[in-house]
Design brief:
single chain; 140 residues; mainly beta; Immunoglobulin-like; four-stranded mixed β-sheet; four-stranded antiparallel β-sheet; 1 helix; 36% strand; globular
């Protein structure tokens, strides 16, 4: 399973990195928000969430960035499930076999990041000017 996970992460990195397909070492466009400064928002500043909280075997991720963001999550059994979330939108990820923790992988602008998050919660995915990276943080 470790080899499969490494392969899935490698494939995700390749698919998220258009510069990886090019042979020239031309400088890449910055990955952060373009034309404005945006720090992660506090829960009070975010868009309204659906009335129903996520179930005990799922999480909700809200994209508080200004562009579509791609990520993957481990289905708890055999595969990474790709997902993209439009700016300002939310997505619910469900994993009945994850035993209360869902593993989420995304490129933070500098490196591939893999985090385990607790089921039944809401998370924000947005740009952090402080770190200069995309971050996944709990809304609580």
């Amino acid at each position: 399973m470790s080899k499969m996970r490494a392969l899935a992460i490698s494939l995700l990195l390749i698919s998220l990195s258009p510069a990886a397909a090019e042979d020239s070492p031309a400088p890449r466009r910055p990955v952060g928000p373009q034309g404005r400064v945006m720090e992660l928002q506090t829960p009070q500043e975010t868009l309204p969430m659906p009335a129903q909280p996520p179930s005990n075997d799922s999480i909700r991720i809200q994209n508080v960035g200004d562009q579509r963001l791609a990520l993957s999550y481990w289905d708890g059994e055999s595969a990474w499930r790709p997902l993209s979330i439009e700016a300002g939108k939310t997505a619910d990820l469900s994993c009945q076999k994850c035993a209360g923790q869902i593993t989420v992988a995304f490129h933070n602008g500098k490196a591939m990041k893999q985090v385990k998050v607790q089921s039944g919660r809401v998370y924000l995915l947005g740009w952090s000017d402080t770190g200069g990276v995309w971050e996944l943080t709990s809304s609580r």
